[in-house]
Amino acid sequence: MTQRILFVDDEVNVLDGFRRTLRREYEFDTAVGGHEGLDMLAQHEYAVVVSDMRMPKMSGEDFLAKAYQEQPDAVQMILSGQANLDSTVAAVNGGNIFRFLIKPLEKVALCSALDKALAQYGLVTAERELLEQTLSGAVEALTEVVGLVSPQVTKRTRHVVEIVEQVSPVYRLGSDWQMRLTALLSGIGYAAVPGPILEKAERGESLTEAESAMLSRHPDVTAELLGHIPRMEGVSSIIRAAAGAEDPPDGLEEHVSLLAFANRVADGLLRGTDIDSVFDEIAAEGGHDPELIDGARRLSRRDGTVVANLAANELFVGAWLRQDVFTVNDVMLASAGTAIGQSLLERLRNFDASIGIVAPIKVEYVPTRSVGLRRC
What we know:
The protein is α/β, with parallel strands linked by helices. The chain folds into 3 domains: 120 residues, Response regulator (Rossmann fold), CATH 3.40.50.2300; 152 residues, Hypothetical protein af1432 (Orthogonal Bundle); 74 residues, no CATH class. The strands form 3 sheets. A 5-stranded parallel beta sheet has the order 2-1-3-4-5, sandwiched between helices. Strands 6, 7, 10 and 11 form a 4-stranded antiparallel beta sheet that branches. Helix 7 packs across helix 11. The C terminus is likely disordered.
């Protein structure tokens, strides 16, 4: 967790004063004016941003608004001598200002304010990390359990998650926890659809009106399931909007576009179409962001993967299946495209020990230089 501070002021002598008086107490950078401050925010992560208000070219109000868009977790403070009352009130009422300080300020008072701001940053990031880790762990466990019941759902989810992970950098969503959870949960509503109907849809066969209605209900089923979990409203809305069940929520338009694209790619892959041909189909159809398609062509490649045929007792967590897995009496246990998690590994080992599994089993994985595997 960073403890670095950014001071932004148009007066060089003020910034020099910070460097003289605070260099032993804090890690910090200085920027002359708002434009230089935004450049620093694009290059480094900060816990606290301290800005003057009356600056030429870019006001403190405008700078802080853009700084919040760049790093929303950073705690913002105003340190100004001649702040315009209207702009200051607007900045404070925006809800992002932690402290408003008046120049000149004694070192003791400034350090006290900075210490409180750093503590506030610690509280905010700790709560977010706890939320992300708790929810992510619960969701991954849930999707593994669903996979044991409905391998078809797991196969679809695997495709969606992989595309989202690989193409998220196009929209700078690579570290967005909400997008990751959305991908993991995007197909959970399909668990309510009978397996034979899902298989028909995968093969592109005609569905009856009743079967089509079951499939179209999946975002509503997902929303109903997620409605019992606090703070999952955004995830539910993204899934529904990507399926066309509602308009994209404000501020989550890129999330919706990415999930809709990943869903379309998954549809093509489930039909057995190779990924390059899927991208060609999507480009010809229109309706999806060309930037996503181009980014997917560049990014959705597995480099350095190894394909191996293994016995059931040689399987491991982190590989993913390249074929459906059946017992010797023809019961399907897992479908191609499924990532092997701990619960699935235990399931396969138990069935192999009690009934027997058809082997060898073709898997794919990414080797690393260290012990273990990197999960794709």
